[in-house]
Write a structure and sequence with these properties.
The chain is an alpha+beta fold. The chain has one domain (1-48). 21% of the residues lie in helices and 19% in strands. It has a two-stranded antiparallel ribbon. The two termini are 15 Å apart.
Amino acid sequence: MLGVCTLDMHFVYVLPGWEGSITNGRVLRDAISRRHGLKVPHGKVVII
């Protein structure tokens, strides 16, 4: 599962459905490549 939230902890994107052992990069690439998928504004990324 991939969950993206704002700095004040409001979820803005959720991608469920990945099971088992998978790399974070693969889930992120899948989220970005989907139609109406995750849009990442340039300069606005904070990874925790």
